[in-house]
Amino acid sequence: MVIDIEEFKKIELRVGEIVEVKDHPNADKLYVLTVDFGNEKRQIVAGIREYYSKEDLLGKKIVVVTNLKPRNIRGVESQGMLLAAEKEGKLSLIIPDPKKEIDKGASVY
């Protein structure tokens, strides 16, 4: 599907910092993350447990779609979606350049 730039502009992407990581109580492949955007914190459910340890995630800055409707995932509300790339069983989070000092809450273009 091809969308025009006006449709793409509707997607809000922001940088957030993972400040808490918990195992999902009802799913072995999911984490429940608390992500800090500077002016607010949100809970995000993500299927990345088999790719990242809790220690690897804590303090990591990630890119999140922040204007999705909240969704209940296996009994836990998710208030956004993190971005990741996957190929041939490998997964990588989409993160800001660590050499640049991008503040949490920054918009992504």
UniProtKB/TrEMBL annotation:
PANTHER family (alphabetical): TRNA-AMINOACYLATION COFACTOR ARC1 FAMILY MEMBER, TRNA-BINDING DOMAIN-CONTAINING PROTEIN
Pfam family for this entry, one: tRNA_bind
Primary residence: cytoplasm
GO MF, one annotated term: tRNA binding
Compartments it resides in: Cytoplasm
Species this protein is from: Candidatus Nanoclepta minutus
Gene3D superfamilies listed in its UniProt record: Nucleic acid-binding proteins
Function statement: Is required not only for elongation of protein synthesis but also for the initiation of all mRNA translation through initiator tRNA(fMet) aminoacylation.
Record keywords: Aminoacyl-tRNA synthetase, ATP-binding, Cytoplasm, Ligase, Nucleotide-binding, Protein biosynthesis, RNA-binding, tRNA-binding
CDD domains, per database record: tRNA_bind_EcMetRS_like (cd02800)
Enzyme Commission code: 6.1.1.10
Catalytic reactions on record: tRNA(Met) + L-methionine + ATP = L-methionyl-tRNA(Met) + AMP + diphosphate
GO biological process per UniProt: methionyl-tRNA aminoacylation
Identification of the protein by name: Methionine--tRNA ligase
GO CC annotations on file: cytoplasm
Subunit structure: Homodimer.
Domain TRNA-binding, residue spans: 7-109
Classification via InterPro entries: Met-tRNA-synth_bsu_C, NA-bd_OB-fold, tRNA-bd_dom, Tyrosine-tRNA_ligase_regulator
Segments crossing the lipid bilayer: none
